[in-house]
Amino acid sequence: MKKKMQREGVFREMRQRRSYEKPVGAQKSGKDEAIRRTRKLARKKAQREGLIADPRKKKLLEAKTLAQRSGMRAGPPRSF
Question: pLDDT higher for 55 or 43?
Fold first, then answer.
């Protein structure tokens, strides 16, 4: 139910209707929101194309390398 309401924008509308906003303020917030959406889409597109590193993938990669390093140290001692 919560996901469905989020998709329909019920929560966003409730937040906007908490208090009256002048028409000039509504225009400004609408423009700000449009700019935010545009930047988010551009960022996602750049991540897909590989121009920007995806922070989620970066965390996974760091976790893998950390696990590999700790696994190597826990192995048998090397003899030279």
Answer: 43
pLDDT in tens, 19-43: 998 999 999 999 999 999 999 999 9
Model pTM score: 0.53
Instruction: Provide the residue count of the chain.
Output: 80
Cβ contacts of 52 within 8 Å, gap of 6 or more = 43, 46
**CA 78 → CA 6, 68, 73, 75, distances in Å?**
56, 16, 10, 9
Of 43, 64, 63, nearest in space to 54 by CA: 43
Helix (H) or strand (E) holding 75: none
Task: Say if residue 73's pLDDT is above 60.
Answer: no
* Helix boundaries (H) for the chain: 2-8, 10-16, 23-49, 55-73
